[in-house]
User: What shape does this take?
Amino acid sequence: MATHEEKWPAGTPCWVDITVSDLARSQAFYNTVLGWEFEESTEEYGGYTNAHLGGRKVAGMSASMEGMDWPNVWSTYFATDDVDATAAAATGAGAQQTFEPMDVGAFGRMAMWVDPGGAAFGAWESRDHTGYEAHNEHGAVGWVDLATRDLKTSKAFYGSVFGLTYEDMSMSGVRYATFTPPGGEWAAGGMGDRQVGDALGPRWCVTFEVDDVDVARQRAVEAGGAAPEAPLEFEFGRIATVKGPDGEEFSLMTSKAPDSEAPTAP
Assistant: This one.
């Protein structure tokens, strides 16, 4: 088990959440595929609820609000010590703000943008809610990465806003780089060129660690999702991209050698 209950270092991916069309249906789906249990949702926060693994927060979910046209996609949030300063840096670097910095009760403070390449992302200044507490284990976030039209521009943008540094991991004609937040010792995510034929556009992609990709993929299909592509073997393990009940994309990965001791990995 990999548990992180403290505040995540600034620049580290620290939370993921999704808006869904049918909360009960999606909760049942992710319980089946990833083993999540959910808190009671409250109207005070628009029906938002936290998913848990063994009592530890792992992701957020809420039902679509009437009159609000918000896509059913997984969103990635970066930790920040000052969301207002992050907002100024992001818009100054060319991002379009979609949610201005706002308080979320005693839990924290957040904002969201679309980066210059068209990918949505958020920032989270934690208070009582420090982000995901389970990571890099079955059912929890194992990796996040950006699919971008312009890797050079994306690296410059996120480097400017969050102080990320990069290591080139390109291979076989595919450009890819991992990123590390300021002061970090391990890569916290990656970014790379969109694949040929990718019709979904620039986006932050979420990958959940599972004990067995093939089993989890089959569970996703049986629970009402889809698995349009076969699993792939790669240097660090086995991965499959699947879709949830609203057609939302996410990936499942079984690592060859998961590094559960890395404190700054998402």
Notes: The two ends are 13 Å apart (CA to CA). Residues 258-266 have pLDDT under 50 and may be disordered. The longest helix spans residues 23-34. The first strand starts at residue 13 and ends at 20.
